[in-house]
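Page 47, continued from p. 46.
Same chain as before, 440 aa.
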Amino acid sequence: MRITRSVARRRPRTAVVATTGLTAAALLLTGCGGSSDSDKGADANGNITLTVADFGQFGYKEAGLFEKYHELNPKITVKEDTTAEEKNYYPKLLQQLNSGSGLADVQGIEVGRIKEIVDTKADSFADLSKTIGVDEWVSWKAKQATAPSGAVIGAGTDIGPMSLCYNRELFEKAGLPTDRAEVAKLTEGGWEDFLALGEQYKKKAPAGTYFMDSASAMFNAVVSSSPEQYYDAGGKPVYKDSASVKKGWELAAQAASKKLTQGLAQFEDQWQAALRKSTVATVVCPAWMAGQISTYAGDANKGKWDITSAPGDTAANWGGSFLAVPKSGKNVDEAAKLVKWLTAPEQQAAVFKAIGVFPSNQGAYELPDVKNATLPYFNDAPIGQIYADGAKSIPEAVLGPKDGVIKDSISTQINNMEQRGTSPDDAWDAAVRTIDKAIG
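Result:
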């Protein structure tokens, strides 16, 4: 999806990040000029409307960036077309690419799809390698959108460095430490320590509560910390033999069998209700997840949650997206300038401030709005520091064209182990059947 931030399941409201304010001057630093003669979409007065198609919540509206861009470029107006669910957005994008019509000037692409786009549709997109500063991004992010020809077909928006969100109130009631440094120490040995902490929680857990929301989230975190996940470097599907998949599956099966999880499908109604009712004590937290928790746990739970580093010493990334420019657009040059501006450090910092998704552009990490950021909802957790530290050590992962399908299929079967009591062997066999049918 990200369960893939297929966050496709991103929602409109999110956490407020406490930072120093971005200045208008900082935003102006990366402003663009007027329209290019090579763009064919201008009206008789030279005015251009750029369309941006994306999914979920990219944060540009919340950060006021399209209005700011218009102020900097009075002849350019940006209109955003947002699809709530990425799972509905992506098939439409493929249809438009196949037909060569209906595409926006700028298209969002989710990380679980980028490999398939690079492999099969790279020629449909403009090469941004000479437009954006490729070296500004974390290296693995830029490589994800780079075709064999060297063309860079997407500029990185956000990434999802891993952390752990926990309910301080529930931890206290279960007799566990609540200080984020102490919690981190209890899980410093890795996800096995995390499960051991879950067993401690279970001994004195408040009635009707569970240690974690979803074992599939833990599975994704484990797999995301490894360079080899579902495919090898040659493009061959290896999910059946992948060490990270095996480890993640075994840990998820343990969590299900020990009843440490409420077995909720993340982002769905029951999951939202569990956050509101405080029935789960921990949620695996890529950077964008904090916004989900604060949205659905609501104001009544503000200050009850905190954030600490992810279990173990291996960094992981879960999620992230790209902005790409279709070659078929009438405003290719101006669209590329817009993409460059939206993904520059100052604008990524503004989005982080507005909705809490973490920048992929390293130049943003030293800006005050990122470096000094805290989350008031999460007991003033120093997320700028937590996420930046993780982002710098995330391993470069091998992506495959059907990563999203594989993740979703495995997550479904983990959920069946949790909710239906399906045996690990039967659940795995069902996942394999679904995946092999999908990927051929």
